[in-house]
Amino acid sequence: MRASGRAADEMRPIEMIPGFSKHAEGSCLVKFGDTHVLVTATFEDRGPPWLRDSGKGWITAEYGMLPRATHDRTGREAARGKQTGRTQEIQRLIGRSLRAIADLSALGERQIRVDCDVLQADGGTRTASISGAYVALHQCAHWMYNEGWLERKPLSDSVAAVSCGLVDGQPALDLDYVEDSGASTDANFVLTGQGGIVEIQSTAEEDPFTEEEFLRLLRLARIGCDTIRQAQDTAIRSYAG
């Protein structure tokens, strides 16, 4: 039993509220326990300049944390005039994860911008962002199709992400901040609904982990992503009918 009272293969409570933002073409307020992220998806009737005349569109992401999303105030990156390496890494991960399940040709020369703003952080902000971003992206694509911007729907699969780690030598799913900060190994898994692997980020903080330990974490990740996918499906049904 973990400090939170959860079993090793148990997720934190998940809540996804689609359409949370009044003005965005797609949006989702996603909660993994005490980690809360607001995701919006914005339609633009133009693609990036480097894709001009290619017939393809693009999906890109930005990520940021509000100053008091954490225990201590973190200064705004805009005020410092520079994004941290962590921020750049995370937003690129989010963009790659969404593009992995999208047909960019179906978008035409248009772009969807996904913004992930962390309102409150308790571990797993990047995985919550990816999981909520899929719902916001799906809603935006649904709107584009219904409004006549698309001839066919661009998403071929779903995508979800979850963290796992070795905590006190034992594999655990969906780490909160306390677990993540003390884990000897932590990993982030991005998986599609059909079981494909988009990306795995895994690091040993102390002793190296074994192949068997890695496979145990992967098995936990699949359990977690199945749970997330159910929450995504429920959110999508609430607006798609």
UniProtKB/TrEMBL annotation:
Pfam families documented for this protein: RNase_PH, RNase_PH_C
Keyword Protease: no
Alphabetical UniProt keywords: Nucleotidyltransferase, RNA-binding, rRNA processing, Transferase, tRNA processing, tRNA-binding
UniProt cross-references to PROSITE patterns, sorted A to Z: RIBONUCLEASE_PH (PS01277)
SUPFAM superfamilies found in the cross-reference section: Ribonuclease PH domain 2-like, Ribosomal protein S5 domain 2-like
GO biological process: rRNA 3'-end processing; rRNA catabolic process; tRNA processing
Enzyme class label: transferase
Catalytic activity, reaction form: tRNA(n+1) + phosphate = tRNA(n) + a ribonucleoside 5'-diphosphate
Domain Exoribonuclease phosphorolytic, first and last residues per copy: 10-139, 158-222
Residues the entry annotates as binding phosphate: 86, 124-126
EC annotation from Swiss-Prot or TrEMBL: 2.7.7.56
Any GO molecular function: 3'-5'-RNA exonuclease activity
Transmembrane segments: none
Domain of life: Bacteria
Subunit structure: Homohexameric ring arranged as a trimer of dimers.
Family stated for the protein in its record: Belongs to the RNase PH family.
HAMAP family named in the record: RNase_PH (MF_00564)
Described purpose of this protein according to its UniProt entry: Phosphorolytic 3'-5' exoribonuclease that plays an important role in tRNA 3'-end maturation. Removes nucleotide residues following the 3'-CCA terminus of tRNAs; can also add nucleotides to the ends of RNA molecules by using nucleoside diphosphates as substrates, but this may not be physiologically important. Probably plays a role in initiation of 16S rRNA degradation (leading to ribosome degradation) during starvation.
Name of the protein in question: Ribonuclease PH
